[in-house]
Design goal:
The chain has two helices and four strands, in the order βαββαβ. A hairpin with a 2-residue loop joins strand 2 and strand 3. It is globular and about 40 Å long.
Amino acid sequence: MPHSYYIYYRVDPAQAAAAGPRIKQLLATLKKTTGSAGRLLKKRGEPGLWMEVYENVTDEAKFEWELAEAVNRLKVTEFLQPGTPRRVECFEEA
């Protein structure tokens, strides 16, 4: 059964310009390694709240491992607001 991942976090406003290309690199990496084409969204009215969406993930273990590997390698957490984490939520069809 395919799963959908929703990953949200707050980007440090001082890092937003540099964060965009890095997150797009993360999306491209995950598409290459897992086949899952992600999307990047920003909350309307709150541009510092970002969300990555990955749908139709069929191999959760591989996806989660590749995601963690890419986040670490690309140093994605450098762009977060201090004291805030990346939150990963996984959903399946009801």
